[in-house]
Design goal:
195 residues, alpha+beta, seven-stranded antiparallel beta sheet, three-stranded antiparallel beta sheet, 3 helices, 10 strands
C-alpha cells in the first residue's frame, strides 16, 4: 500500500506541476504588459521606428502581432490606422474589407477584417504561404503617446480558428500601460471615417 500511495502522490504532483498558467510579458522597452494564454509564446523584434511583438498559440496555427510606435506629431491616430490598414491589405493582396472593432487596454480600437493570401516574407513568414487563405483582423489606436497596431490572422489550415481569435482578443484586452505617457494628438480613439 505504501508504494501505491507514494506513486499516486508523485503522479498528482507531476500533473499539478505540468499545469500551464497564463504568462505575463512586457513589450516596447517595458512600457506595456500583456498576458498570454497558457502555452502561448511570444517574440519581440525592435526596429528603428517601431517594436513588433508576435504572439502564437501552442500549435503555431495562427498569429497575433502588435506594433508599437511613438507618436511624432507628423501623423495623427487616424493616419496611423489608415496606413496600418492599407499597408497590411496590400501585403495580403486584399481588395475589400469590413469594419470591425476590438477592446484594447479598456479602449475601443477601430479596424477592419478581410481575407487575403499571406505574403512570402514579413510578419507572417514564408511558411504561411502554404497555409492557404488568411482571415485577418486589423486594429489601430493610440494609448497615450504610443500608437498601437493589432493584427490577428488565421489560415485555411488553422484547426481551431475560434480558439486562436479568442486567444488573440484576450491578449489585446490584457494590454496595459506600465507607465503614464502624455495623451496622443486630438482624434485619439476616433471612429473610422466612412469610406
Amino acid at each position: 500500500m505504501g508504494q501505491r500511495h507514494l506513486f499516486a502522490v508523485l503522479v498528482t504532483f507531476a500533473l499539478l506541476g505540468c499545469k500551464k498558467e497564463p504568462k505575463t510579458i512586457t513589450a516596447h522597452a517595458g512600457a506595456f504588459q500583456l498576458t498570454l494564454p497558457p502555452g502561448w509564446s511570444s517574440s519581440e523584434e525592435q526596429r528603428p521606428t517601431l517594436d513588433h511583438l508576435s504572439v502564437k498559440p501552442p500549435d503555431g496555427d495562427g498569429v497575433c502581432a502588435f506594433t508599437f510606435t511613438e507618436a511624432t506629431g507628423v501623423m495623427d491616430p487616424d493616419q496611423f490606422r489608415e496606413n496600418f490598414r492599407s499597408g497590411a491589405m496590400k501585403s495580403f493582396g486584399a481588395v475589400q474589407s469590413e469594419p470591425d472593432s476590438i477592446e484594447v487596454a479598456r479602449s475601443r480600437f477601430a479596424g477592419v477584417h478581410f481575407k487575403g493570401h499571406p505574403p512570402g516574407s514579413g510578419v507572417v513568414g514564408a511558411l504561411a504561404t502554404l497555409a492557404g487563405e488568411a482571415s485577418v483582423e486589423l486594429y489601430g489606436g493610440a494609448l497615450g503617446s504610443t500608437y498601437v497596431g493589432v493584427m490577428l490572422a488565421t489560415f485555411d489550415v488553422t484547426e481551431d480558428k475560434k480558439g486562436v481569435v479568442d486567444g488573440c482578443r484576450a491578449v489585446a484586452q490584457s494590454l496595459k500601460a506600465l507607465r503614464e505617457t502624455p495623451r496622443a494628438p486630438i482624434g485619439d480613439h476616433a471612429p473610422p471615417r466612412a469610406r
